[in-house]
Amino acid sequence: MNNEFLSVIGRTILVLVILFVLTKWMGKKQVSQMNMYDYLIGITIGSIAADISLDIEKNVIAGVISLAIYSLSGVLVTYLTLKNMNLRRFLCGVPTILIENGNIIEKNLYKEGIDLNDLQEEARQNGYFDLSKINYAILETSGKVSFLASAREEPVTRGDMKVKVKDESLSANLIIDGTLLEKNLEQMKKDKSWLEKELNNRGYKDYKNILLMTLDNNGKITIYDKNVSSNTKILE
Known about the structure:
- There is one protein chain.
- The chain is α+β, with helices and mostly antiparallel strands.
- The protein has helices at about 5-25, 30, 35-55, 60-85, 85-90, 105-110, 115-125, 180-185, 190-200; strands at about 95-100, 105, 135-140, 145-150, 170-175, 180, 210-215, 220-225.
């Protein structure tokens, strides 16, 4: 082994030890529920650590000092945001309502850079294969989405009462953001005439005001309108 290789090994081990100590110092929040500022600190520390490990021309002491300064800033921000709500809102952001009273808030989806497929994926990962069963969906500052089911979908309402119900089935998206998905319509063995009839029965003349329309194998149709605004203020 040459000296350069041994130096990289030594630097890497040293950086790992330092990162472990600094992470313990910064607290569990840094590795569990990161907000925007935590994310910024995290990727910067990772970049500096990699630079120290691989670039043997870089001064190790200077790199360690830089890591310590970034870590200290993270600790200070955490402390200050605990004491000051306005600073917390500015640095960490606030939760955003994506679904309110069963209505998808299109404006908030676009604001947060989330499309309908992302929302549906998050819902499925949380056990909701039908958006109509969700009363509220909130994008937390950590980037995770929290869901609140409609009262009628609480587990005790049907199972404990031994009420017979049909098994839920997967839904197909027929319209997304005013655009008809013809392949999905065909896969559900429906045509445009059927679709136009169903929309007319519900008071829709065309697709442009529909944010999302789904159809499941049981024939259940769910429609979400575009431009629905949120009236709820989230308090911290």
